[in-house]
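Entry 14. Structure prediction run on the chain below.
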Amino acid sequence: MDNRDSVIKVITSPLGFFALALLIVKGFLGTIVIGSSSDAAKVLGMWMAICAFGGIVVINSDNDPWKCDDKQGKIMADNTGGKLIVLHEGHMGSLKFDQPYKEFPLLIDLID
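Output returned:
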């Protein structure tokens, strides 16, 4: 199988298509942001990149020990028009707090 066939195979899955579309949009908006001389245009471009897909979901915990908590998640969700999901699970993915998150079934459910 050549490279083109393997790329097409990945694109046929919903997640593969989403990833490709995201890369195209981010590449386009990144070019605009990098090429802009105005700070306001750079900030606008960054928010456009964040909101490009409209399906933003922010997952935060209400008891994060490093303050990456639901209050921070609400700010992100409010600014992107996204949905906030609040869990009570500490810092998700922390080896220090013995929460390695080798699996995250909620994330898989959201992608499906």
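The longest helix spans residues 14-35.
Filed with the rest of this week's runs.
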